[in-house]
Design brief:
By secondary structure, this protein is α+β, with helices and mostly antiparallel strands. It has 2 helices and 4 strands. The longest helix is centred in the last third of the chain and has 19 residues, at 107-125.
């Protein structure tokens, strides 16, 4: 500080980027192309119990791979760990936004997609749907 003739208090810090990479879904950020789809998108919320070692980013990637044209977005809206849950378990709330392509979804189509998501999460991550 003497060399640069600094007369005020100075603070320093270091940022470790590896631990925060779990929240970054893409390395580069780009805007999506404009989508002029007039059909109504729908949202479905799911809450699952997972082992504590499961990472939310892995769940999001897996759900998006079901059908990247129909599944427009997957968002974690809640993570809960506490004494009201079984030991070494956590609850994760997931919102899935579905966008029809050609026609509005029927109730049975929505049910089929929802069941596909539940089956995938149950088999891949040992997740249990919370009732």
């Amino acid at each position: 500080m003497q060399k640069f003739e600094i007369k005020t208090n100075v603070s320093g810090f270091e940022i470790f980027l590896d631990p925060i990479s779990q929240f970054q879904l893409k390395i580069a950020s780009t805007k999506k192309a404009y989508d002029n789809n007039s059909l109504q998108a729908i949202e479905r919320d799911f809450a699952f119990l997972f082992p504590k070692n499961i990472r939310a980013g892995e769940i999001i990637k897996k759900i998006k791979k079901i059908d990247n044209q129909l599944v427009k977005n997957v968002v974690v809206f809640d993570v809960f760990e506490g004494n009201k849950l079984p030991e070494n378990m956590k609850s994760i709330g997931i919102k899935v936004i579905l966008q029809p392509i050609e026609k509005t979804f029927t109730d049975s189509e929505i049910e089929t997609i929802s069941n596909t998501i539940i089956d995938l999460i149950s088999k891949t991550f040992e997740g249990k749907l919370r009732q």
